[in-house]
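User: Can you predict the 3D structure for this chain?
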Amino acid sequence: MRSSSYSVLPGRRLRTVVVLALTAGLATAVPAAQAEPTASPAATTTPVAAKPYMGWTSWTMQSSKYPGLNPKGDYSYLSEANVIKQTDAMAAKLKKYGYEYINIDAGWWMDWSWKSQFDQYGRQKADPERFPSGMKAVADRIHAKGLKAGIYLPVGLEKGAYNDGKNPIWNAEGCTTADIVYDDLRTTNGWDSAYKIDFSDPCAQKYIDSQAQMFADWGYDFLKLDGVGPGSFKSGDNYNNVADVAAWQKAIATAGRPIHLELSWSLAYSHVEDWKKYSNGWRIDTDVECYCNTLVTWENSVDDRWDDAPAWTDHAGPGGWNDLDSLNVGNGEMDGLTKAERQSYATLWAIAKSPLFTGDDLTELDSYGLSLLTNREVIAINQQDNTRPAEPVTSANPQQVWAAKNPNGTYTVALFNLADAPASVTANWSTLGFTGKASVRDNWNKENLGSYTDKITQALPAHGSRLFTVTPRGTALKWTGYEAEADTNTLSGNASVADCSACSGGKKVGNLYTGGKLTFNDITVAKAGTYQVRVAYVSGDPRSIAVSANGGGGTSHKFASTGDWGTTNSVYVPVKLKAGANTITFDSGTGYAPDIDRIDVQK
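Assistant: Here is the predicted structure, written as structure tokens:
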């Protein structure tokens, strides 16, 4: 999904602006109950969000200033004609690869000057110029191509729907818009464009029910609820929309149609259990779009996902997925990326098991972009059942290795060079838990590369990547663990032992800042060499620490956030050890370092 706001004035460029994904508006003021439900591919027994969804969204082109995309002014790309054009292109080019959702984002109830329109029940109503046939007819047209239809709403009661509290709530006798908001008209959502709904009044749930029923009767299969907090760069009680999300889940359950509920944007990790409980997907980051003369740029926010995705990995699975935002790799020059960047972008989205939805112009896909979006091996990695998202197995330095173990014993392994210059990247088999030989298949190029012993090294361009399936042929490794809080270790500076319920042994070493150090003593190995040492750590934000052995010079490694200070993760760092006893030191230097739980060294 995107981070841009329908309530933000056209032309306002915000990196933190979130896109309002899908909202359905009534083409007329006819009560939703009078609309005929539409049969469509959604009316199946397949569970909602069993796999990451695949599709297209209107927001990316709406948000861009690329010449010709928005001829009537900012955000004017969205129209019935353009939605149908993209629907036809998806059916022809991408449907057979699994793409199915056509998602109408923010603005479907706005005129060209971005003025909202509502029906007599305070529900968004389709703009007659943008969508002259109405939203139901558009959904019918999408379904006729064997695809699914998505729509968008901002969270809360939009200010324009309030009408001095006089609007009745559909199918809720005696309820008006005055009943469903707080008396002080406190605002909510990422743009403060709506009044916060007070769910202590039963009329509030009736209002959400009326919107969900309207979308179901129109035949929509997907709803993006945008500006949701905590998140969307807002915090505090006014912006806590957990009750709204729960109300939407309840309303959808009684609307008579399966509807995928997606949340946006930059959702707070502290409420991840709520997002999992009440929705089918959640944006973990800000908009990927650059709001410039291309669709995206690498530096604007595409590259942020390598830092931000790891903390969320454990929370993705059937029924709910981490959403990295739209995948805009198909239009070449208009994307604003090099070929290497386009492949890395697609690689991360695939291995993170993010929804694969693009905002590209599907009528203008170039051959390279089409090959990225339709590579069946890469799509299978994203869509395969019973597989976890990949996560970093090395520290968050410019050269990274991400991996996931698959049920059949193979590994999905991605190599990334996030530096601005070419560099080599090595995946050591020891970071996967084995040593010896392994067979390697190149997924992007669809070719077997043969057998590699102990590791594979690839020279990558700036922002480049490779994606492999690795099949072990060697021996599983055994490890020796060393607890950070052990009495045999040496603590220096501010370093101290602290309780940690998520940590091995229930303890960790923290306060590693401005000179704080932790030294593990008596790390014994039989042979000299460079060892991939597994470091279990806790860090509520990305932090760096220098690692050294036997009093030598340290190498700084950046560790990705674990999401909060009560969650552990682990990565591998290379340490050169001598035969016999060694010391390994973690030094915060002049900054703030992650807390250390334990280390494991291969035998």
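The domain at 32-154+224-241+260-383 is CATH 3.20.20.70 (TIM Barrel). Residues 83 and 199 are 35 Å apart (CA to CA).
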